[in-house]
Amino acid sequence: MAPHPQRLTVTRRAWPLARPLMTAHGVKTTVDVVVAEISDGDSRGRAEGVPLRRYGESFDSVAAALDAMKGAVFSGLNRDTLQHALPPGAARNALDCAFWDIDAKRAYRSVAELAGLGAVPPLMTAFTIAFDTPEKMAELAAANRARPLLKLKLGGDGDVERVRAVRHAVPASRLIVDANESWNEAQLREFMPALIDCRVELIEQPLPADADDALARLEHAIPLCADESCRTLADLDRLDGKYEAINIKLDKVGGLTEALALAAEAKRRGLRIMVGGTIGTSLGIAPALLVAQLAEIVDLDGPLHLASDRVPGLRYEGSTIRPGEPNLWGGPG
Asked: CA dihedral defined by 271, 277, 282, 284, rounded to 10 degrees?
């Protein structure tokens, strides 16, 4: 237990995007984040969560879930007991990563050391091309042709034209695509030859999570990656024969603790690992960098899509992420 009673402070902030983002729910101009900060009078730890609408979360619901934990935090809640006190999601992620941060400061060690990992090396991230018309996606891809790996957000009809337009605009870039559960089995079969022709290296979540049994009977030359079909450790068994990779997101799994356990078990089963994230600030990306050391594909470009990031933040040099200042998150006390 902490040397003094722990107090939890919950704050909310909307961060403007660098450019409007088209989603299935309309156009977004800001991203909402909720920050959990734990203080015991001597040390403090903080982290952020981004509500995931896919799992029924909102700005209000995540903040309310954290507010409801203030008494438990004061009474000595810790990282271990938290795993059963909150379900997977953005609220548990923010609180879990805040506990990692304050635990590191109390121990005068980095979170990487506490987790048994090495210091975070520079990592190369994918850069996301948001869902739009083929022409606009190709234009944005061309503006980012120096980036080695682009991830295309897709949405159903017209997706082959989108991929072809981007491939024509950036013949040298590596491409992965994210269908966001928007295809059906017939579309996946129909699209596959064109995606192979466009040298797509990975297809993320082609079918809805509750309809992905069809993947077990579908031959696919391009590896498939489970996102919505794999939230926590409990989902791994149902992925057999359907996916070759999983996408681990801290807001989805509910924190660094579960993410590290999921990565270790996925590797043991021979699954490839992708580490992703939502659009948010460097405070949300910093913990994911620890998991990213275990991943083949890193998709942590969220701060690049903001009009401005936290200061201090992570250092992005092109598509290379370099660790930020120790006082951003996870540094020793």
From this structure: -90
* Helix, coil or strand: residue 241: coil
Residue type, 220: H
pTM for the structure as a whole: 0.95
Strands 174-178 and 149-153: parallel
Cα angle: 188, vertex 190, 192; to 5 degrees: 65
Instruction: State how far the Cα of 3 lies from the Cα of 105, in Å rounded to an integer.
Output: 13
Which positions are catalytic?
153, 249
Alpha-carbon span 93 to 253, nearest angstrom = 8
Alpha helices in the chain (DSSP H): 59-67, 70-74, 79-85, 90-107, 111-114, 134-143, 159-169, 185-197, 250-253, 256-268, 282-292
Supply the pLDDT for residue 24. Answer: 58
The structural domains of the chain, ordered by start, are 7-108 (3.30.390.10), 123-322 (3.20.20.120)
Of the given ranges (1-5, 168-172, 201-205, 294-298), which has the lowest mean pLDDT?
1-5
Q: Is the separation of the CB atoms in 35 and 8 below 8 Å? A: no
How many other C-beta atoms are found inside a 10 Å radius of the C-beta of residue 157? 9
CA-derived radius of gyration, the chain: 20
Burial-class residue 113 by CB neighbours within 10 Å (0-12, 13-18, 19+). middle
Helix residue ranges per DSSP H, 153-206? 159-169, 185-197
Instruction: For residue 203, give the nearest of 185, 181, 183, 177 by alpha carbon.
Output: 177
Which tokens hold the place of 304?
A: 């690049």
- 193 exposure class (CB count in 10 Å sphere: 0-12, 13-18, 19+): exposed
Q: Determine the length of the chain.
A: 333
Classify 133 as helix, strand or coil.
coil
How far is C-alpha 81 from the chain's CA centre?
24
pLDDT at 18: 95
Residue 25 has what pLDDT? Answer: 61
**Residue 85: other Cβ atoms inside 10 A:** 15
Joined together, the tokens standing for residue 278 give: 């939502």
